[in-house]
Specification:
- There is one protein chain.
- With 146 residues, the chain is an alpha+beta fold.
- It is 35% helix and 9% strand.
- The strands form 2 sheets. A 3-stranded antiparallel beta sheet has the order 1-2-3.
- Strand 1 and strand 2 form a beta hairpin.
Length: 146
């Protein structure tokens, strides 16, 4: 009988696990690209907001993130920034949370948008009448910030 593979069962399992890990990473990268595009579209559609701010950290993929410009606050203040007033668990000190559409006085966008692909810029609303728009300077606030 002819063998299906010359690899040992252990090697086949190692390769299978490597393939699963590679696919997981690929899906994560694909999701991160989608989420970045969502944040960029929000910024270009409503103006200055956390989603377009250099200080905002949103690695969970949701509509909220942490504001590094606000500085480290107590665990209780972290919870309060999420609207939680009482909890049996107190997290470690960290940055407060805010909603993507929120705008505060510490907004910063030093990114050079002209370095991005034209098709991407068009898809997020950064192009108008065939040219790259000026960065948003107006705000339309919403959400909350600790």
């Amino acid at each position: 009988m002819r063998a299906w593979s010359h690899f040992s069962p252990e090697e086949i399992e190692r390769r299978r696990q490597a393939s699963v890990a590679a696919m997981t990473e690929f899906k994560r990268a694909e999701f991160e690209h989608w989420h970045q595009a969502w944040r960029d579209r929000l910024y270009w559609s409503i103006g200055q907001c956390c989603a377009g701010c250099d200080h905002w950290i949103s690695d969970g993929g949701g509509k909220s993130g942490q504001c590094s410009a606000a500085g480290i606050v107590s665990g209780g203040q972290v919870l309060k920034s999420m609207g939680i007033t009482s909890a049996s668990f107190l997290p470690s000190p960290g940055f407060p949370y805010s909603e993507a559409s929120f705008h505060c006085g510490k907004f910063k966008d030093d990114f050079d948008w002209s370095t991005l692909d034209w098709e991407y810029l068009s898809s997020i609303g950064a192009v108008r009448h065939g040219a790259l728009r000026n960065k948003p300077t107006t705000t339309r606030t919403g959400g909350s910030h600790g």
